[in-house]
Amino acid sequence: MPELPELEVLRENLENRLKDRVLRELRIRKPYIQKTPQPDDLFPQKVTAVSRRGKYIIIDAERNRFIIHLMLSGRMKLRSSSDPVLKSTAAVFVFCDSFLQLTEEARLKRMSLWIVVSDVKVDDIKPLGPEPLSPDFTPERFSSIISTSRQRLKSFLVNQRNMAGIGNAYADEICWEAGLSPFRQASKLTGEEIERVYAAIGKVLREGISQIRRAAGDSLDIGEKRGFMKVHRRKDEPCPRCGKPIAWVSTTSRNTYYCPGCQTGGKVLKDGRRSRFLK
Ligand SMILES: [Zn+2]
């Protein structure tokens, strides 16, 4: 699933392509995608910006916002008016000489589109925690959120109510960067450990953005080009910090990659589906 770094690069590229274009029509090809009714006076209106909140991409037009969640495998592509519309297309934003096509290949169709008036925020649809790269996400604010959490570190990081935009892959990288077990109890981290996690969040997400930007260029086909990751999906490869093989543990909700050498004090964690006592 695309996370904050992929979606931020998609936002940049989408804004470069769509800003000042006039939206003429919206064709919904798969009704499941549409979460709100289509207002009457929707067209024409000019795209003024493309923004992002957590894992949501927002196409801002003069009167309305189009809030999109790509979920697991939603993709966007800008095509010229003469191109054919693909079968897997869920929605088409029609401009003068081009159209933006939203497709979803996954079996489970979960991509979502909300059409709202301009002052409606994503948080009105789904409450989200702060943006981890925004200036108001200070160490003090982070510390107050994490120190009251009852979750384990990785679950804390991927919970969108704590902060928005981090998912399974970047959470593994953040735990590794901080040198901490993904299964540490968040509220029991020391002040120094909390500082390490805070620094790791900024570093991992910023590095992710610059790597993804380099790999994607100006394309809207961002995919998940994550060859730069240190532990995520790197089972048995040597840890870039201590050389020990990267391990993998499965819990009911997700797979977690970590280094037993520098994150869990040499301890190899048991399969979480069988052990309720991961520490
Ligand atoms: Zn290591």
Automatic annotation (TrEMBL):
It catalyses: 2'-deoxyribonucleotide-(2'-deoxyribose 5'-phosphate)-2'-deoxyribonucleotide-DNA = a 3'-end 2'-deoxyribonucleotide-(2,3-dehydro-2,3-deoxyribose 5'-phosphate)-DNA + a 5'-end 5'-phospho-2'-deoxyribonucleoside-DNA + H(+); Hydrolysis of DNA containing ring-opened 7-methylguanine residues, releasing 2,6-diamino-4-hydroxy-5-(N-methyl)formamidopyrimidine. Residues 230-264 form the FPG-type domain. GO terms for biological process: base-excision repair. Residues 2-129 form the Formamidopyrimidine-DNA glycosylase catalytic domain. PROSITE patterns: FPG_CAT (PS51068), ZF_FPG_1 (PS01242), ZF_FPG_2 (PS51066). Keywords: DNA damage, DNA repair, DNA-binding, Glycosidase, Hydrolase, Lyase, Metal-binding, Multifunctional enzyme, Zinc, Zinc-finger. Belongs to the FPG family. It comes from the Bacteria. This is DNA-(apurinic or apyrimidinic site) lyase. It comes from candidate division WOR-3 bacterium.
